[in-house]
Design brief:
195 residues, mainly alpha
Length: 195
Amino acid sequence: MYKLHQKQISKYARQSPDNLADAMRFVILTIQQQLSSAVKQSKGEQEANLFGFKLKAVADIEANKQHIFNTCERLFETNCHDNLLQFLADQHGFGLVKAGFVCQLVYGISGCIDTHNLKLHNIPINQVTYNNKAKDPTRYKKAVAYNKLIELRGGTESLWDNWCDYVAAKNPNTYKNGFEVSELHVEAITKGALK
């Protein structure tokens, strides 16, 4: 699942600042939402659940998409993966978990330790968060520890495939299987993302 779908998302998202912004907007839509709802919102089939910090996050993505794209590409191409995670985590509304999700989708690194994965892997929430007032050295250390945590849990591909299978099994009336869950991410980003 991940090997196929991540490549499609990456190929799309790395083409331009607008396309990376599509991926980032989708990630914001997934916060405290069922995947099926986030996909429908992304594609305009359901009103987008954007309020407060989500609305500001989407506005900031749009206003800064060229800078975000250039910085992400530079950090990824120079193998500064922990710095890339920290940079994205510092974007309004993201934090380590959703920044990890962007890294996973677009660059094939890191991962999303959401509420499902916290439970599945018995991870305390303080391992995937930090205080907004934390200084850069602390934020960087947390980014390093977060990426290490992903590696210890089998890596980005394993985390993705297990999550998709778990979500499909938990919602059999919504999804046929994990492959469908995985594929929905491609659909939402390349054909949706609030277009």
